[in-house]
């Protein structure tokens, strides 16, 4: 059994089928990308894993537990969004500490974990800054730290870098990859950018129209596309 297994997941908004009996499985410590054009259902799939939308059919098993009927907060899943969802009225330090306070850890433990996270994402010197005083890239690093510090079983990232400049984006791709490997976090990273997917993933699930068109390592998908859709999406006809 894989660490995260999705089986025959279906979801429709009214008449529109957004996820069509979709199945996939992910191993513990893997970084996989859900890649695909806008509207293909990437965010809906991620939100289903997080418990923010209810699928009509199918199952989602994380670490041997069926999570579909589970409360979102009991799923031990973290999420980072494209637009920085930091609390604007809290400092960087307090944003990162937020989830730990909810878990009622003692003050010393919280301070230690927050300090480790600040070091890990490289926000030293910004502990007392408010989100509005940070650059976009720094805000995303703080959002990443806040999501990781509570040690979720799976971290879901929905186009976390799409709003950033190319240069900062490339740097953050590397940083996310480094942190993921260092801590062995299981990550599901959503992007519509094939170069980004190629750069950071162990495996890519290329989606089209609510289904997985092809899955495999970046090299496999790039060199052996199984359809014209995949070949085009990976940039073969440009
Ligand atoms: P992606 O993240 O790949 O761009 P989404 O999962 O956001 O795709 O959307 C997939 C499809 O579902 C789109 O056609 C979108 O318009 C539709 N959709 C997403 N969320 C809702 C919603 N809450 N209500 C109705 N339709 C939605
Ligand atoms: Mg989306």
From TrEMBL:
Keyword Transport applies: yes
Top-level taxon: Bacteria
GO-annotated molecular function: ABC-type quaternary ammonium compound transporting activity; ATP binding; ATP hydrolysis activity
Tagged with keyword Nucleotide-binding: yes
EC number per UniProt: 7.6.2.9
Domain ABC transporter: 4-234
Catalytic activity: a quaternary ammonium(out) + ATP + H2O = a quaternary ammonium(in) + ADP + phosphate + H(+)
Keywords: ATP-binding, Nucleotide-binding, Transport
Subunit structure of this chain's protein: The complex is composed of two ATP-binding proteins (OpuCA), two transmembrane proteins (OpuCB and OpuCD) and a solute-binding protein (OpuCC).
Name recorded for this polypeptide: Carnitine transport ATP-binding protein OpuCA
Shown segment, full-protein numbering: 1 to 238 of 335
């Amino acid at each position: 059994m894989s660490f995260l297994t999705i089986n025959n997941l279906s979801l429709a908004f009214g008449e529109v089928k957004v996820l069509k009996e979709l199945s996939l499985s992910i191993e513990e410590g893997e970084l996989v990308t859900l890649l695909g054009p806008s509207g293909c259902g990437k965010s809906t799939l991620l939100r289903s894993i997080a418990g923010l939308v209810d699928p009509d059919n199918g199952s989602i098993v994380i670490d041997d537990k069926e999570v579909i009927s589970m409360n979102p907060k009991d799923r031990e899943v973290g999420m980072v969004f494209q637009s920085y969802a930091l609390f604007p009225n809290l400092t960087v330090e307090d944003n990162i500490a937020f989830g730990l306070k909810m878990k009622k850890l003692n003050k010393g433990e919280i301070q230690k974990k927050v300090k480790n996270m600040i070091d890990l994402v490289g926000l030293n010197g910004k502990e007392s800054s408010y989100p509005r005083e940070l650059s976009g890239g720094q805000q995303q690093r703080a959002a990443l730290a806040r999501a990781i510090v509570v040690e979720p079983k799976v971290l879901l990232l929905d186009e976390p870098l799409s709003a950033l400049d190319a240069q900062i984006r490339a740097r953050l791709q590397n940083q996310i990859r480094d942190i993921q490997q260092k801590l062995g976090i299981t990550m599901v990273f959503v992007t519509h950018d094939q170069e980004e997917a190629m750069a950071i993933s162990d495996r890519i699930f290329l989606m089209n129209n609510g289904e997985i068109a092809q899955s495999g390592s970046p090299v496999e998908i790039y060199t052996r596309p199984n359809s014209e859709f995949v070949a085009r999406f990976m940039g073969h006809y440009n």
